[in-house]
């Protein structure tokens, strides 16, 4: 339990930006840090979540983020703090728009626009979950799948992620025969309880949304994450929050890749709660390069 509480606390520390939004030129400035890890770049979901929190700090508390559109411009250095500059584009009667740049070394590593809305009544419908999933408790943990591997990334994924991820479709962490399919699905939730703050849960969902959006691109071609010479990088990310949810309760994440071409792959995802309600939709395009296609 101590280890589980530690990983969730790491997520909360990531989302707890410093700075009180003191305006510098036309931006409110906040600063975020990266927890130590063995990888050479900052996890994209972290920068997304921190950008959402920075923007949230400049909006009326009654307005919740409902969409973001961002571009990953440069890899983030995990050994440097990240400065978030928030520009207040508009505050209307019902909606607020914010532009966020995440800076390192004086240049942006992420550029994002997010929209916030006052709660409102209106039409209601949503697609049902496209699969019937087994109970998450019946599925193996990531630690059970790869926790035995003596490699720093495998150890981090198995024991240090703030989310417990249970694969419904076969995991592609390891090499081997993989059934080619452009679809994936997992259950996920944080490893411990989160505060009762809907804004934190929405930002944490942005964090989790980046975990495996490009996985169905690889799975469609029978590839694993450890394919020799594989190079993958997120290019852009879009997300729409439809309903409130708690990330410390199980969420079904259903993913699909409709296309890959020109060394780019598109992944889409839908989050459902255990009641079957669609709570968020995500899309991301990424660079996917393999040595057999090198010119």
From TrEMBL:
Annotated Acyl-CoA thioesterase 2 C-terminal domain residues: 181-287
A biological-process GO annotation: fatty acid catabolic process
Family (UniProt): Belongs to the C/M/P thioester hydrolase family.
Organism (species): Glutamicibacter uratoxydans
Self-association and partners: Homotetramer.
One Pfam family of this chain: 4HBT_3
Highest taxon of source: Bacteria
Key words, A-Z: Hydrolase, Lipid metabolism
Protein name (database record): Acyl-CoA thioesterase 2
GO MF, one annotated term: fatty acyl-CoA hydrolase activity
Acyl-CoA thioesterase-like N-terminal HotDog domain location: 38-117
Reaction catalysed by this enzyme: a fatty acyl-CoA + H2O = a fatty acid + CoA + H(+)
UniProt keyword Transcription regulation, yes or no: no
Gene3D superfamilies per record: Acyl-CoA thioesterase, double hotdog domain
């Amino acid at each position: 339990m101590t280890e589980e509480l530690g990983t969730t606390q790491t997520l909360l520390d990531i989302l707890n930006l410093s700075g009180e939004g003191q305006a510098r030129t036309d931006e409110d400035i906040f600063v975020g840090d990266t927890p130590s890890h063995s990888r050479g770049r900052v996890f994209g979901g972290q920068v997304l979540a921190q950008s959402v929190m920075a923007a949230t700090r400049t909006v009326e508390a009654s307005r919740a983020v409902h969409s973001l559109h961002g571009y990953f411009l440069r890899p983030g250095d995990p050994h440097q703090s990240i400065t978030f500059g928030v520009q207040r584009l508009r505050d209307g009667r019902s909606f607020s728009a914010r532009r966020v740049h995440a800076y390192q070394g004086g240049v942006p590593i992420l550029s994002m626009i997010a929209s916030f809305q006052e709660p409102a009544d209106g039409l209601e419908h949503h697609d049902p979950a496209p699969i019937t999933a087994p109970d998450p408790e019946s599925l193996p943990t990531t630690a059970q799948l790869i926790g035995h591997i003596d490699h720093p990334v495998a150890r981090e994924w198995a024991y240090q992620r703030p989310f417990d991820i249970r694969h419904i479709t076969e995991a592609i962490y390891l090499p081997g025969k993989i059934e080619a399919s452009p679809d994936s699905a997992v259950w996920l939730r944080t490893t411990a309880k989160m505060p009762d703050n809907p804004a934190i849960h929405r930002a944490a969902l942005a964090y989790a949304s980046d975990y495996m959006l490009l996985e169905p691109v690889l799975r469609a071609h029978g590839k694993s994450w450890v394919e020799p010479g594989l190079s993958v990088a997120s290019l852009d990310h879009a997300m729409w929050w439809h309903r409130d949810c708690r990330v410390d309760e199980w969420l079904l994440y259903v993913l699909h890749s409709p296309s890959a071409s020109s060394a780019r792959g598109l992944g889409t995802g839908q989050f459902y709660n255990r009641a079957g309600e669609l709570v968020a939709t995500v899309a991301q395009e990424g660079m996917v390069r393999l040595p057999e296609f090198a010119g």
